[in-house]
Amino acid sequence: MARQQRAMRTREALIGAVAEIVAQEGLAATSLTGISKRAGVSNGALHFHFVSKGALVEALEAAALARLRAVLEAPADARSRLQHLVDVTHALTRELTTDVVLRAGFVLCADVAWEPGADLRVHLRRWVEDLVREAGAAAELRPGAEPEGIVTAVVGAIAGFEVLGARDAVWLAPRTVARFWELLLPALAAPALLGTLDPAGTRGRP
Amino acid sequence: MARQQRAMRTREALIGAVAEIVAQEGLAATSLTGISKRAGVSNGALHFHFVSKGALVEALEAAALARLRAVLEAPADARSRLQHLVDVTHALTRELTTDVVLRAGFVLCADVAWEPGADLRVHLRRWVEDLVREAGAAAELRPGAEPEGIVTAVVGAIAGFEVLGARDAVWLAPRTVARFWELLLPALAAPALLGTLDPAGTRGRP
To answer: Taking a C-beta distance cutoff of 8 angstroms, is the pair B184, A184 a contact?
Structure first.
């Protein structure tokens, strides 16, 4: 049991190390020696867990997808689907500033040299599509607002905030996300719902 | 004169070759040998023009910035600043699908391993800021629409379309950009102006 826990911890340390290098310097700068050094793990232990750099990066990708799913699938405590959408975009940009595994997963997506197995952006787009469809079925959308347009604007902007945020953290600040929703919500929310929506997000508040 | 023209052509071929490799495979995959081979230029000729890979990538960056400026600073034939903004976003996404130098310039911006000299996205943000400020001064904005929110949504979405478009060209399609504006224009344009605006762009039309 102790040995299994140790093995698990080593594996997590290796994924954390590759995440830090990918997020800071990109995939190409990532070497097995650099990873084992940063994780404080011997080359032998690294090879026990991962046969190659590719296998380690795939494990990083899977870990990043799990983090993304945890953000997207957290229980909805909002009063409407649109408020839930707002709350989740706030949660996602906040996680991107603090969670290096999640950030590295998005850096991989943006790297033209990497062929993603699990494309985080595609996963995010499908999640937004589903939620917007549900919001439409629940009469939460403004009459005339096209679901495809809403998905385009929201997924496009989140992808943009993420990639711009890698160079300038202000793009991931709560104020930036709130400004985006202040502008967008009147265009997409049913008038009766609009007054109940908080562009700054409601998660974690009473 | 003939020699100068030849030298200019060689330089352009080298920049085109490095742009193709950066756009398709990323900066790390770019080697001087690969570049000279793709450009059909000897290693000696390459070194005559550029002392290092870094110098060549800087030349690519400068060329990409010049292409971006040509798109942003083309004469405005639209009837309003907001229509000009719509038209330029259409022109930019169209150029991104056809101009490999421009596309490679944005790939460089997204590469965490590259320290940009001329950040195309920062240039784009400043241009949008200026235009939105002018639109506000000309009473083209909807009362209550925050200029910062407009800049955030537009720059964020363009950055998103560009990075998503590198994997899936539909993000750079005219229909995608038009959908974005169909949703956004009612939220940001003065009501009297709204009816005159075409989300699909007016450039090149009578």
So the answer is: yes
Query: Which tokens go with A81?
Result: 């689907």
Taking only the tens place, the pLDDT of each residue in B50-81 is 999 899 999 999 999 999 999 999 888 889 99
Dihedral of the alpha carbons of A171, A175, A180, A186, in degrees to the nearest 10: 180
| Domains, chain B, ordered by start | 2-60 (1.10.10.60), 63-194 (1.10.357.10)
What's the rounded Cα separation, in Å, for the pair A82 and B180? 18
User: ipTM score here?
Assistant: 0.91
Residue B3 parent element (H or E):
helix B2-25
Kindly determine whether residue A153 and residue B158, on different chains, have CB atoms separated by under 8 Å. Answer: no
Mutate to test the interface with B, among A18, A119, A164, A175 (most CBs of B within 10 A): A164
Q: What is the pTM of this model?
A: 0.92
Q: Locate B50 and state its tokens.
A: 């550029």
With beta carbons under 8 A apart, name residues in chain A contacting B19: none
Query: If you search the block for the tokens 């060549």, which residue do you land on?
Result: B56
Looking up tokens 């990043």 gives A64
Between CA B197 and CA B206 the distance in angstroms is 15
